[in-house]
Amino acid sequence: MSLRLGDTAPDFTQDSTEGPLHFYEWAGNSWVMLFSHPKDYTPVCTTELGLVAKLKPEFDKRGVKVIGLSVDPTDSHHGWSKDIEETQGAKLNFPLIADDDRKVSDLYGMIHPNANDTLTVRSVFVIDPNKKVRLTLTYPASTGRNFDELLRVIDSLQLTDRHKVATPGNWKHGEDVIIAPSVSNEDAKQLFPKGFKEHKPYLRTTPHPAG
């Protein structure tokens, strides 16, 4: 069964390019982005792993640990990582899980029988420090993932966890946000000292909160 938002991300121990990995212990109190790949030496995934390696400082700034998964064994991963570095100009700088027994794929519902009964689909899970699943996305094999969008969602999740706000469509970090409907106008004056604009009783915007 696929994981849903708010579910607890399952723990596991599995081999990886950085040795045996106990997921909860590795994650610690950090946010995590786990993203899966159908198999090694696939063209779209090669570009994605190189891109994430280049973007890792952006994930680090947000306190997010990144981890990949593919259903081939570790020795295959090490060979693939050389191709990634050669073709993408970036060395793999995060662990890649070797899920050759499909244990993690089954735990996270990554097997898509209608597509293929053995290969994982290309899924993404954003998991918070409490090990709760906060975002799930599944992409078709032919479409590379948009990691700028994933960073944008993480920015929104982290901001809305700290403040009683939501983020509008196409929102980017630093732009105005929406005050949660549960906050009264009186409370909003205290919570949002920069002020707010009431477009409708249910739609009030305020500048990006500090912190």
Instruction: Give the fraction of residues assigned to helices.
Output: 25-40%
What is the count of distinct domains? 2
Shape: elongated
Enumerate the strands of the largest sheet in spatial order, edge to edge or round the barrel. 5-4-3-6-7
For the secondary structure, the number of strands is 11
Labels describing this entry:
five-stranded mixed β-sheet, 32% helix, Glutaredoxin, Antioxidant, Horf6, Chain A, domain 2, 211 residues, alpha+beta
Structural write-up:
This protein is α+β, with helices and mostly antiparallel strands. The chain has 6 helices and 11 strands. It has helices at 23-27, 43-61, 74-88, 103-107, 147-162, 185-191, and strands spanning 13-14, 21-22, 31-37, 64-70, 96-98, 122-127, 133-139, 165-166, 177-179, 197-200, 203-206. A 5-stranded mixed sheet has the order 5-4-3-6-7, with helices on one face. Strands 8-9-11-10 form a 4-stranded antiparallel sheet, with helices on one face. Strands 1-2 form a two-stranded antiparallel sheet. 28% of the residues are buried.
